[in-house]
Amino acid sequence: MEFTNSIILTQILVTPLVGALLVALLPDRRSLSRGVALTFSLLTFFFTLHLPAHFFANMPGFQFEEDIPWLVSPAIQYHVGVDGLSLWLVVLTGLLAPIGVLASWKTIQTRSKVFYSLFLVQQTAMLGVFVSLDLMLYYGFWELSLVPMAILIAMYSRNITENGGPRAALRFFLYTFIPSAPLLVAILWLYAKTGSFSFTMLQGAVASGTLPAGPLCWIALAFLLAFAVKVPVLGLHGWLPDTFSEAPVAMAMVVAGKLGLYSLIRFHVGLFPMQARQAAPWLIALAAIGILYGALLALVQKDFWKLLAYGTLSSLSFCTLGIYGFTLAGLDGSVYQTLNEGIIGAALFVLLGVLYDRFGTSQISTFGGLAQRAPSLAALFVIASLAMIGLPMLNGFIGEFLVLSSTFTAVTWGWAAAATIGVVLSAAYMLTLVQRIFYGPPSGQITAHPEPALDLNMREKLILYPLVTLMLVMGIFPNLWLSGIQSGVRSVANPPAPVVMNQAPASQSLQAGGRQ
């Protein structure tokens, strides 16, 4: 078991990459490509389950570490490990891989070899981001995660004949790639000053005060910009609606939230605590406004992909709000909400993808009265919608409650009240969507559709039932996840300067002495 623990992260990283190479080398036959991709994605998920089974929640620091010299000059290490922050994100990424393959089972009809090989490369890149403890290794995986996504959006867009895919892919690539250039410069500056890319060593160097404070503010800003775009934070979300509308379901379910939010906690708040606290008033304001802005725009959308895009912007803004309140409960809630968004978002993408595949449109007005013809589809859609709203007993409630309660009691009641209005608006747009699709007057398109093909088939149920089960289990037994998460975020919720905001202007500095 000790040997397995010492190599498990390498196994997790290599398995989807081997699958991608195998798919690329085999003949381009759809059944063969998707079969190999499903096998290796399931194997990767199986390996990720080893982590929570042998993780010690009360042990500080990183576990399952591997630290092997890679390059001598510059000194780049193959240094990987997980803690409570990254543990469940790795498992979530492993879970979404086979779900993505199954969701693409019928929709990817051509060039399946390219699709599944790039999809598996994307999984390796995302897993690498979560486990890397060397900043240059992290940057390599971060950049690698952008390329397969952009290619797959361009090649497999839903509106490829209307030039939608290339346009959406270019917008996604430019939005996410351009801020990565300052990030690379910032990483190289840190190396020039310290001689190391190691996260733990850089964390110590920044905390010691040996690095010049002026340039360090710009370095922290470069990190923040790169990560905020990937969340996305309000004002940097221009790529999100087009990407949700055009990307294949398997890619759209992983594109937003997880990488950016994890990186904000690990490499912005964790590496630059003082600078993060200086930026916190602005980010708290952007998060609260983003909750309202996303919800209001979702409420008036006529296309369900765009409604989900703006709803996701609103939901992810809760995570940003919790992160920059610097309370332990808020950080717990942010990470938990990140997991929730991965699970709920995957279910909604699959369900909406089913509707799009059946009817060839995403216009909400073309649907109506579908519940009688597709009861299983309607039931699962309602459960996923209620989880996204934050109904108690479902997983979405836990994350939102932790973030809002901590913001009310320890940060600022004003922005917390605004965020609470966003919860009400989320109920409005999701319940309106449910009513118009499933319980409104039947449309002619629904009535004319052949009866047997409307409801969920066995493959679609196989995808959705585990996700819905997780929504219930995570809503009823949150401590199964929160105990590990808390061990990973406790250090960034403590001093140097807890946040206090008594309705002061955003330009004022955070005051010390606030409650955790």
Topology:
Elements (H helix, E strand, L loop, with lengths): L1 H24 L4 H19 L1 H4 L9 E9 L4 E7 L1 H20 L8 H20 L3 H21 L8 H14 L2 H15 L4 H10 L4 H18 L9 H7 L2 H7 L2 H12 L3 H27 L4 H20 L4 H32 L15 H15 L5 H16 L2 H27 L4 H5 L9 H19 L2 H11 L27
Antiparallel strand pairs: 1-2
Task: Please tell me about this protein's structure.
The chain is mainly α and 516 residues long. It contains 22 helices and 2 strands. It has helices spanning 2-25, 30-48, 50-53, 84-103, 112-131, 135-155, 164-177, 180-194, 199-208, 213-230, 240-246, 249-255, 258-269, 273-299, 304-323, 328-359, 375-389, 395-410, 413-439, 444-448, 458-476, 479-489; strands at 63-71, 76-82. A two-stranded antiparallel sheet has the order 1-2. Strand 1 (63-71) and strand 2 (76-82) form a beta hairpin. The longest helix has 32 residues, at 328-359.
